[in-house]
Structure formats: C-alpha cells, structure tokens
TrEMBL record:
It comes from Asprobacillus argus. Its EC number is 1.2.1.3. Homotetramer. Belongs to the aldehyde dehydrogenase family. Transmembrane segments: none annotated. Residues 35-494 form the Aldehyde dehydrogenase domain. The active site is at 265. This is aldehyde dehydrogenase (NAD(+)). CDD domains: ALDH_F7_AASADH (cd07130). Keywords: NAD, Oxidoreductase. PROSITE patterns: ALDEHYDE_DEHYDR_GLU. InterPro entries: Ald_DH/histidinol_DH (IPR016161), Ald_DH_C (IPR016163), Ald_DH_CS_GLU (IPR029510), Ald_DH_N (IPR016162), Aldehyde_DH_dom (IPR015590), ALDH7A1-like (IPR044638).
Length: 513
C-alpha cells in the first residue's frame, strides 16, 4: 500500500504517531475511548483517535467561549487575513491532505485533491468577503434620525459533518464563520476521524503563528452522542449539520426545542432529465460521472435518469456501454474510476437496494455485485449497477448512498419529466440535458425544478463554491458556501440614531409630558 505515499502524507499532517490517540491542538482535551479508523481502500488500520467525554466537552466550550471574546473584536479584514494564511497552508498540504481524504474515505485521489481545492476556494472567497459584510442603510421617517443595520457574530458555531466530504464541508462552514467573527466547534464523522485531526493540526498552526487562541477552532470526536452535546447546548446558537435526513430530523428538533438555529444539509435524490434535444455524448459523461463518482456517495450523486421515450433505448445503450469501461479499484491509483464504499454496512445497504428494486418489479440492466480477491480485501468494493425502475417504487423514493442508478421513462412534454423529478421527498440537485431553449427555461421556471440546485447541460454533482449550496424539502433548506450564505453565521441588528435635541416618536405618536 505504501507505494502511494500514505505514510509520508500522515507524517506531513502530524498524524504519524497518533496510534495512541494523541495529537496536538484542542484535540488534547479528548480523553474518551479510542475510535479506530480503518481504510476502506485496503482494510488497514490508519490510526486511533480519542473521543470527547462530557467533561472534555465542557473544557472545549469554555476555551471556545473565551476565544470568542478575543476573536470577535478583531476587525473582519484582520480575521480575513488569518483565513488567507489558512488557505496558504492548505495549498502547501494539498497533496498530503488529498491523499488522506482518499485513503480514509475512499474517493479517488483526484476527488480528494478536488475536495482540498474547495477548501482553498472557500478561503479565497471568505478573504474577499471579510471586507464586504454589508448591511443596509434605511431612511428614517423621523427628521434628524439615521437608521441602518449591521451584522455581528453569533458566538460558538457547532459543525457536524458527514463522512463523504470529510474536510470540505468543515471548511465551507469555518472559513465563513471565522471571517464573521465566530468560533467553531467541529464534530467530524466518526467514520473519518483522522481527517478531522489533520485539519485541526493545520488550523492550529496558523492560529499559533499569529498568537491567537486555538479555541477559535475546536475539534470534538465521537459518534452522535458527542454531536448531541452541541445540539442540546444553549451556548451553541447555530448548529450546522450535514448528513442524512434521518439525522437532520433529530438535530432540527433538538435545536429548535431550545430555539437555537440550525443549518441543515441533508440527503438528496437527484435526477437528470434527458430530453429528445439532449446532446447524448454530454449526457453520458455527466450521468456516468454523477452516478459513479465517489462511488455514488455524494449528496449530489445522480440517482435517477428521466429519459424521453423517443431516445430511451439510445441513451440506455450508451450508458451501459460506458459502464463496461469502468475500472474499479484502489482510488489512489489514478487508472481507476471507482473506489470503495465507506464500510461494509454501506455494502449491505447497496445489496439490499438491488434486491429491493428487483422485488418491486425493476429490471437490472447492469449487474451489481461485491468484488473480492486481490486488491479488494477490504470488502468495500462494489460494481456500479443500473436498474430500470418506476419513480413510485419505495426504493427509488429513498436515497441509497451507493452507485445504483435508476432509469425512468417519460413521454410527451418536459413538464411530465418534471413531475417525476419533483415527485420525491428530497430537493437537493437536479439537471436537464437539452439544447431546446423552451425546455431549459421551463425547467428553471417557477413551475420547474423544485431543487436548491438546477443545472442546464451539466450533471447534478460538482458544485462551485461561489453559489449558495443546499436544497429544499427533506434536504433541509440550509444554504452554505457562496452568495449571501454568510448571513446565517451572523446576527442582524437594526440601529436608529437620533442626532437632534427632540425625541419624536415613530408613527407620529404623541406622548407629551
Ligand atoms: P449521518 O447522518 O449518518 O451522519 C452525519 C453526521 O451526523 C455524523 O457526524 C454523525 O455522527 C452525526 N449525527 C448522527 N446522528 C446525530 C444526532 N442525533 N445528533 C447529532 N449528530 C448526529 O450521515 P453520513 O452517513 O455520514 O453521510 C451521508 C449522508 O449525508 C447522505 O444522506 C448525504 O446525502 C448527506 N450529505 C448531504 C450533504 C449536503 O450538503 N446536502 C453533503 C454531504 C452529505
């Protein structure tokens, strides 16, 4: 395995000697039982990380609250400068961190590098934004009065993230939260704890170099019970949680019960509509990358292809042919297209989905199966599968986090395809492949896609950080990353200032003494 340079990458990230679960940074507060992280790539132990106990958590929270007092009074562009340095550090460590992401999570090395690039991109975005946290000025109805609004930081932002983007989701949140003046406490997925420690080490270096308290950036480790410490904690005004809809429904209720705010980024059930005017070559590339990239473990992975009946056979044949070319294997080997699933539980869910689609009357057109033998020792490698199905099947209505693609047929107008596309509980990403302006505009119109992301002649996955990212319905409604997503990390205050010697009341109310 080591010919891919994993040991060197671990050393560069300060993870070489953490087999006893120790490391630098706020992580030193953790004293709980060890989590062992095994790579889905080769089944080997990568390292062990100590979990956070309730007592440890209290220390983290005290550190974070103390750091907030210092951080919030730094001018936003000064905070931006720290984020700029963090982005620079990420550039230096891009290969090492990309490799760790690939090895611990199982996505291809290219996608691992892409994930780190997203972190760098959001840092660049945040640096510029640190000079643009604009409020509005309004005209007061009272003479000699000035009215405006300003944004202040919230305090401690809790971040709970999923295994499939083990580093980027944290950066989307922290880079913005930091320039907004917040401090962060991050609970990474218990399936990718080494990525969490690696990021903490990188950030800790930057804060130490600037004589700033590391409590601006905190790491807690463990499963949902550690996440719950934050969701129930009134000291955490915002919990940003990325993961399954099942998790989001619990987190939303916990946080709402104490009237906190939550930012939810949950599951998707993303479709590409393929109309008679589609460019078939582009459709095949977009659909295959969308369905098998990250082994179907992206929240934006393409799950459903909704194809017009007039071109159905042609598209189906082209996609099946493309699947025959796929090479499945070690994701660090750049010759492979598809790596492993995260663990054997995910493999069991993949198998169950394939059984279910057949039981519901679906027709398998590309056989799935679990791979075994040399190179597949982890038991996590599966064949991307395709089934012809019906949108009403229960299994099609659910997100299966694996490379299973459903082919669905529509006839007549593009609005019929939209009914199918929107006819699921989730609302994350959607796409249409067409060169017909009327179809494209109908798809984007008020009566079109009901998703947070709607693309024309691009697949469903691979969003850029410049736009607000997130989805509707059971995807949770949250928005992260670009556009004005920063506003979620701040509290808005309306200020009215009277610079006269009179005290006129609003709405002309008279109150003479
Ligand atoms: P998951 O829901 O099992 O876990 C996600 C995180 O939530 C983990 O850190 C976990 O420990 C924590 N958690 C679980 N229950 C909790 C609770 N009750 N309280 C507090 N924390 C809790 O998800 P996963 O398997 O890691 O990730 C896959 C899912 O994430 C998919 O559904 C995918 O679509 C979704 N996802 C969504 C986005 C998005 O931006 N919309 C991005 C990435 C992943």
């Amino acid at each position: 395995m080591d010919n891919f340079g994993i040991q060197e990458a671990l050393a560069e990230l300060g993870l070489k000697d953490i087999n006893e679960g120790t490391s630098t940074g706020s992580h030193h507060f953790s004293n709980g039982p060890l989590i062992e992280s095994y790579s889905p790539v080769d089944g080997k132990l990568i390292g062990k990380v100590k979990t956070t106990t309730q007592e440890d958590y209290e220390k983290v929270m005290e550190t974070a609250k103390a750091a907030f007092k210092e951080w919030r009074v730094k001018p936003a562009p000064v905070r931006g400068e720290i984020v700029r340095q963090f982005g620079e550090k990420l550039r230096e460590k891009k290969e090492a961190l990309g490799k760790l992401v690939s090895y611990e999570m199982g996505k291809s090395y290219q996608e691992g590098l892409g994930e780190v690039q997203e972190m760098i991109d959001i840092c660049d975005f945040a640096v510029g934004l640190s000079r643009q946290l604009h409020g509005l000025t309004m005209h007061s109805e009272r003479p000699g009065h000035r009215m405006y609004e300003q944004y202040h930081p919230l305090g401690v932002v809790g971040i709970i993230s999923a295994f499939n983007f083990p580093v980027a989701v944290w950066a989307w949140n922290t880079a913005l939260a930091w320039i907004c003046g917040d401090v962060c406490v991050w609970k990474p997925s218990e399936k990718t704890p080494m990525c969490g420690v690696a990021c903490q080490n990188i950030a800790a270096e930057v804060f130490a170099e600037n004589n700033l308290p590391e409590g601006i950036c905190n790491l807690i480790n463990g499963d949902y019970t550690v996440g719950e410490m934050m969701t129930k904690d009134t000291r955490v005004p915002l919990v940003s949680a990325t993961g399954s809809t099942r998790m989001g429904k619990i987190v939303a209720q916990e946080v709402a019960a104490r009237l906190g705010n939550s930012l939810l980024e949950l599951g998707g059930n993303n479709a590409i509509i393929v109309t008679p005017d589609a460019d078939i070559k582009m459709t095949v590339i977009g659909a295959v990358f969308g369905a098998v990239g990250t082994a179907g473990q992206r929240c934006t992975s393409t799950r459903r292809l909704i194809i017009h009946d007039s071109i159905y056979d042609q598209v189906k044949d082209a996609i099946v042919k493309a699947y025959e070319q796929l090479r499945i294997g070690n994701p660090l080997d750049e010759n492979n297209h598809v790596g492993p699933l995260i663990d054997t539980d995910a493999v069991a869910m993949y198998n169950a989905a394939l059984e279910k689609v057949v039981a519901e009357g679906g027709n398998i057109v590309v056989e799935g199966g679990v791979l075994s033998g040399e190179g597949y020792e982890s038991g996590c490698y599966v064949k991307p599968a395709i089934a012809e199905a019906n949108n009403s099947f229960e299994i099609v209505q659910h997100e299966t986090f694996a490379p299973v693609l459903y082919l669905l047929k529509y006839s007549g107008d593009v609005m019929n395809a939209l009914d199918i596309q929107n006819g699921v509980a989730q609302g994350l990403s959607s796409a249409i492949m067409t060169n017909n302006l009327r179809e494209a505009e109908a798809f984007l119109s008020v009566a079109g896609s009901d998703c947070g992301i709607a693309n024309v002649n691009i697949g469903t996955s691979g969003a850029e950080i410049g736009g607000a990212f997130g989805g509707e319905k059971e995807t949770g409604g949250g928005r992260e990353s670009g556009s004005d997503a920063w506003k979620v990390y701040m509290r808005r205050q309306t200020n009215t200032i009277n610079y006269t010697t009179d005290l006129p009341l609003a709405q002309g109310i008279k109150f003479d003494l």
